[in-house]
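Please fill in the sequence for the structure shown.

STRUCTURE ENCODING:
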């Protein structure tokens, strides 16, 4: 499809995000849309955000675990952009009014110390670019009605990115086996999910390599200080007002997200 169509679809998704009103799947309303078109739609939204003064502060890889691929009916990863407005502080109330139908995923976040540019990046090069890792909770949200999404829909919708909460204890990447780090996810004190880093393409590091090589072909470099979310270690769980969600990772510690009723980060629920 042409650039004009990309712009129209991007504006529809931007309007849905602003109004908190979901739209029908773009794969249904534009049946000719390809994955390449969907990424072009995503980039148009990122361009709008950056023109509005926001900065890209990282990337996310989605649909990397078998559980998430089964849950959303897709068979390959995707990626999206993390904008500065998506980052929330641990423990402070996050207003649910800024989302449509949010869910939470536990992830092992990479923070980069050096640029990482593909294609051709291997695991050793990816490791050498990592400063440290953190436990993280990603808030995913869909501007597509009722989460009726396929790969094209979620790619166009910036990989269903909604928000990020990072833990506060950095851990050297060599201090933990990323594959074997187990996670217990609790909501209001009840266990709602378990998993391990190996659920993410065999290792979260593989997701970082995949991302660097995939965006590198588009001329994009993963920058120092950027946060990379490699994908969830278990299926996403929905959240509601008043929920407190904690991910406890072996060797990494914990991270908690608390959901209130307000729209501004930091206000009392």
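FILLED IN BY: designer on duty
SEQUENCE:
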């Amino acid at each position: 499809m042409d650039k004009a169509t990309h712009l129209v679809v991007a504006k529809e998704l931007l309007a849905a995000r602003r109004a908190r009103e979901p739209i029908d799947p773009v794969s249904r309303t534009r049946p000719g849309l390809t994955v390449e078109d969907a990424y072009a739609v995503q980039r148009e939204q990122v361009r709008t955000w950056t023109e509005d003064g926001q900065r890209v502060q990282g990337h996310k890889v989605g649909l990397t675990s078998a559980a998430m691929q089964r849950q959303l009916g897709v068979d390959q990863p995707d990626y999206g952009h993390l904008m500065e407005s998506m980052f929330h502080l641990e423990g402070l109330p996050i207003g649910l009014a800024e989302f449509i139908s949010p869910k939470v995923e536990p992830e092992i976040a990479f923070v980069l110390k050096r640029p990482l540019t593909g294609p051709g990046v291997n695991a050793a090069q990816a490791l050498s670019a990592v400063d440290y890792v953190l436990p993280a909770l990603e808030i995913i949200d869909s501007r597509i009605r009722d989460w009726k999404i396929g790969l094209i829909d979620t790619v166009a919708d910036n990989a269903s990115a909604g928000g990020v909460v990072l833990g506060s204890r950095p851990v050297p990447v060599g201090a933990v086996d990323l594959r074997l780090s187990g996670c217990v996810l609790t909501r209001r004190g009840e266990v709602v999910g378990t998993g391990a880093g190996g659920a993410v393409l065999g290792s979260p590091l593989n997701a970082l390599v995949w991302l660097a090589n995939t965006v590198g072909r588009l001329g994009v470099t993963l920058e120092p200080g950027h946060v990379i979310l490699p994908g969830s270690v278990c299926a996403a769980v929905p959240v509601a007002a008043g929920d407190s969600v904690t991910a406890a990772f072996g060797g990494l510690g914990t991270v908690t997200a608390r959901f209130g009723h307000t729209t501004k980060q930091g206000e009392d629920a």
